[in-house]
């Protein structure tokens, strides 16, 4: 760790801390919305599975629109202004969910999701201001570790609060995290851009590293979107789990994700291939095992087990992406990467909602194992075409 030995790098440590804290603060609130809204919709507002799927799709779809169509088109200075404004608006809408009803919840979900679309890609891109490649990649690992920490802390806090309060009241207790995110948003740096380079078209989609990152992340984003939307409903519908235990279920899932990312943050990723193979294999096995789960404890163990690929896949994808683009290109690449992930998160809840309505929860989880198997072979083939990304340190 000699890279942090001089005074200049003390500023880097401070900045990395800011990135970690704002990531934690924004993601903990976003996860609250994504995991609580399906339960409110199902058990408070009496939505059917199709409506729940559409609502979940709108939450992330609106974010994808912001990321791909607006954030990606702006210069660095304007992206910074939009970033700060979006975090402020997100804070304003958080307590409004307390007052939501069968109709207003659609508006709140769409608007809050829309403005969240500029948050995460810009936090990721801000790591591009760190010149040292090794520190930058470790910062990406710490960023994903912060995500996992927030996803453990959030459900645990929710589980405790649900012993005394209802699902609606949860939103009021998370306001301080939003205030912290607003305060830190002014400290986030944005990579400087060469205006001549901005005029040059960056063909992100033809970049082999970008394609690999997309396929790799889709291999887990698909089942993750399913778990996020219907995992809690599965526990309650199949095993009559109380709301507080559902949050413990999610905390267990993210705890294994946290451990996986903790290992990656300690051990610098060199060979991505091996990590990817392990991740996708566990995903396939886990989805099949959910189909055969026969009690709540078994289901809990399987969901926790699926937290491992959740922890491994995202940092692996970000590392591959970071190795594939120059500094003046990475912001655009991150924006399109995030937008495509949002598109997947729109498609999966929509399809899964319809499938749950027609074939049931168990069969839906089993069905989603098949596209992951197909992606498994595509990714293996892609790694052979771009060995530099896998082998570069």
From TrEMBL:
Keyword Transmembrane: yes
Signal peptide segment: none
Keywords: Membrane, Transmembrane, Transmembrane helix
UniProt cross-references to SUPFAM superfamilies, sorted A to Z: MFS general substrate transporter
Pfam families in alphabetical order: MFS_1 (PF07690)
Keyword hit for Transmembrane helix: yes
Annotated InterPro entries: MFS, MFS_Exporter, MFS_trans_sf
Protein name, UniProt field: Major facilitator superfamily permease
Superkingdom per UniProt: Archaea
Residue spans crossing the bilayer: 12-30, 50-70, 82-99, 105-128, 140-161, 167-188, 209-235, 241-260, 272-291, 297-315, 336-359, 365-383
Gene3D superfamilies tied to this protein: MFS general substrate transporter like domains
GO MF annotation: an example: transmembrane transporter activity
PANTHER family: QUINOLENE RESISTANCE PROTEIN NORA
């Amino acid at each position: 760790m000699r890279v942090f030995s001089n005074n200049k790098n003390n500023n880097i440590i401070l900045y990395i801390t800011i990135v970690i804290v704002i990531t934690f603060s924004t993601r903990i609130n976003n996860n609250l919305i994504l995991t609580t809204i399906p339960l409110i919709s199902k058990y408070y507002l009496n939505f059917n599975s199709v409506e729940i799927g559409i609502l979940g799709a709108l939450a992330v779809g609106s974010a994808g629109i912001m990321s791909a169509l607006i954030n990606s088109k702006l210069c660095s200075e304007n992206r910074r202004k939009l970033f700060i404004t979006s975090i402020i608006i997100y804070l304003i809408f958080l307590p409004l969910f307390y007052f939501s009803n069968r109709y207003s919840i659609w508006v709140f979900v769409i608007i809050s999701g829309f403005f969240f679309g500029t948050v995460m890609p810009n936090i990721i891109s801000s790591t591009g201001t760190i010149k040292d490649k090794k520190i930058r990649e470790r910062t990406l690992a710490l960023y994903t570790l912060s995500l996992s920490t927030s996803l453990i802390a959030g459900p645990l806090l929710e589980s405790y609060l649900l012993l005394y309060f209802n699902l609606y009241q949860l939103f009021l207790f998370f306001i301080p995290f939003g205030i912290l995110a607003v305060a830190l948003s002014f400290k986030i740096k944005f990579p400087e851009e060469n205006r001549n380079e901005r005029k040059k078209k960056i063909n992100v989609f033809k970049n082999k590293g970008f394609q690999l990152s997309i396929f790799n992340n889709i291999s887990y984003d698909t089942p993750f979107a399913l778990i996020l939307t219907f995992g809690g409903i599965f526990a309650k519908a199949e095993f009559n789990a109380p709301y507080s235990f559902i949050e413990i279920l999610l905390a267990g899932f993210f705890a294994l994700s946290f451990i996986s990312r903790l290992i990656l943050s300690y051990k610098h990723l060199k060979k991505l291939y091996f990590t990817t193979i392990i991740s996708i294999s566990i995903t396939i096995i886990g989805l099949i095992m959910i189909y055969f789960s026969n009690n709540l404890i078994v289901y809990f163990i399987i969901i926790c087990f699926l937290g491992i690929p959740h922890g491994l896949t995202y940092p692996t994808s970000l590392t591959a992406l970071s190795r594939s683009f120059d500094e003046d290109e990475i912001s655009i690449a991150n924006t399109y990467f995030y937008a495509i992930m949002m598109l997947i998160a729109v498609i999966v809840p929509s399809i899964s909602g319809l499938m749950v309505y027609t074939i049931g929860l168990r069969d839906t989880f089993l069905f989603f194992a098949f596209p992951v198997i197909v992606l498994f072979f595509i990714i293996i083939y892609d790694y052979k075409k771009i060995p530099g990304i896998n082998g570069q340190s």
